[in-house]
Structures are given as structure tokens and as C-alpha cells.
Amino acid sequence: MRQKLRLVLAEDQVMLLEAFASMLSLEPDFEIVGKATNGRDALALVQTLRPDILLTDIEMPELGGIELAEKLYTTKAHTVVVIVTTFARAGYMKRALNAGVRGYLLKDAPLAQLAEALRNVGRGGRAIDPTLAQQVWDAAHDPLNSRDRAILRLVESGRSSEQIATLFDLSPGTLRNCFSDIIQKIGARNRVEASRIARQNGWL
To answer: Quick one: signal sequence residues (predicted)?
Structure first.
């Protein structure tokens, strides 16, 4: 008998998480071994349970889906990542593929398509939403590094310059230089516009 694909599911909307779990549990070749509502719990489950696939959203509390994928990719983890999201942005998918993600699907896809995508990934293949696959080649280059992204996310959350400087252990002058560098990379007029442009392009 063929071994079941072992899955960990990560989704911060509990109702959707339970819906995914219920529907995928009906498939005879899947086993749901863990569920998490934030990225750090998902990472802990993956490290403990070593599932075949982590199914996750992009935007998660504490640790996002792409950041999760980056951590697993750099440590050469056994588990591969499939992202299911509402964000139909080529920039997100480009970042996800660079992080070693093996599947990128939209949440409005039929369950049968999701199940077959997971099987394909389990066999060593990829599963990419076909409409996004066409767009990814035209996606703008992501000019940001991980610290740039973290700083812009704090700008989005309404943190003050003083708070951001403290969190990164930076002097006010160094933080101003960081902001200037980010604004120049993106071609924005100020930090707020920089975060908006970065979000629209899927760089955050």
C-alpha cells in the first residue's frame, strides 16, 4: 500500500484552517499530522514532525509563509512548502519560488485541484497557478533585502522611527540612512509610499 502524504497545515483564519483539514482528510492518501495558526508554531511542528508538505498562507502572524519556506530551504529540511493564498501577485510568487516553494495556488481553486497539486508536489513536481505562471516572467525585480522588508513592515504597522531604531539596535542617523536607501531602491518619495509600492508589487 502506498504511504500517505503527511501534511502540516498553517492558516491564521481558524475556520479556513478547519475547512482545509476536514476536506483534505477525506482524501485517502493524505494524513493531517499538525495544524498551526501562526508561523512560529508551524515551524516548530515541521521541525518536530517532519511532514512531507507544509501547506501555508503567505501572510501569517509572527512568521510569514515565504519566511517559513526560506528557513526550511536554507536548512535543507525534508519538508517542502506549498502556498495557498488570496494574493494573485507575481512578485509574491517570484519570492516564493526563490525561497524553494514547490507549489503556489490561489484559495479559490477547487479542492480537487489542490489535492492533485499536493500529490504532484509529493511526487517531486511543482504546482503553480497557471495564470500567475505567465505573469511571473514580467514581474518587476525585487530590490529589497530581508532587513528592508522588516523595516517597511514596521512602517506599515505605524511604528515610530524611534521604536524601529530600538528594535533594530540602530542609531537615528543609521536608520535615516536605511530609509533613504530603501526609498532610493524603490523610487519612492517617502517611506510611506515606499511601503505601499513594495506591498503592491508583492515584495512585502
So the answer is: none
Three-class HEC string of 160-188? CHHHHHHHHCCCHHHHHHHHHHHHHHHCC
Cell of 189: 518619495
pTM of the predicted model as reported, rounded to 2 decimal places: 0.71
Kindly report, residue by residue over 29-49, the tens digit of the pLDDT.
999 999 999 999 999 999 999
Domain boundaries, the chain: 5-138, 146-200
Which is the CATH superfamily of the domain at 5-138? Response regulator (3.40.50.2300)
Alpha carbon distance 1, 196 (integer Å)? 51
Can you say whether the dihedral through the CA atoms of 133, 75, 145, 35 is positive or negative?
A: positive
**Alpha-carbon gap, residue 25 to 52, rounded angstroms:** 15
CB 7 within 8 A of CB 55: yes
Rounded to whole angstroms, the Cα distance separating 187 from 140 reads: 13
Can you tell me the mean pLDDT for 124-144?
76
- Please answer whether residues 127 and 102 qualify as being in contact, where contact means their C-beta atoms are separated by less than 8 angstroms: yes
Residue 180: name the closest of 194, 170, 168 by CA: 194
CATH of span 146-200 = 1.10.10.10
